[in-house]
Amino acid sequence: MNKAIIGRKAGMTQVFTAEGKVIPVTVIEAGPCPVVQISFKKAGVKPCKVLKEFRLDDLSSYSVGGEVKADVFAAGDRVDVHGVTKGHGFSGVIKRWNQHRLKETHGVGPVHREPGSMGANSTPSRVFKNKRLPGHYGVENVTIQNLEVVRVDVARNCILIKGSVPGPEGSVVTINDTVK
Questions:
Q1: Separation of alpha carbons 53 and 60, rounded Å
Q2: Facing residues of 142 across strands?
Q3: How far apart are CA 164 and CA 92, in angstroms?
Q4: For residue 26, how many other CB atoms are within 10 A of its CB?
Q5: Side-chain-facing half-sphere of 166: CA atoms under 13 Å
């Protein structure tokens, strides 16, 4: 990994190419991010709300106390974006696992959005592990790999990435060179 930056997801929009093709993009406000330390050297930098560590191969372009701005990436670069997905709280099986509803006729009810049968009768007399049941949904660390940087706006510290990025608007994401 040679390049990385921390950003905040601003939302989604679309960009038109010279041929008139529409590209959906996610706008990420990235940087300026201060470099706090290199190889355990401390820097006199103001406290930051978000502090992350990146293991980079080439450290010659970074100095303690310097800043990493959005211009480390260029249009056409391939990146991986790490973020935390949107939280949905306690959710049922239909929302969480995309299961079907029960019939609404022929004596089924009074609840039609429940999971239905859990398993066999007397053998094994339990519900197997990893059964898709209701529970907490969302707020998971997710990495979307091999996305394309469409445009970099250095004046506004914004990076426009093709496609969607995990998390709600305003969430913190990290962008680095793609692994694949």
A1: 17
A2: 83
A3: 25
A4: 25
A5: 19
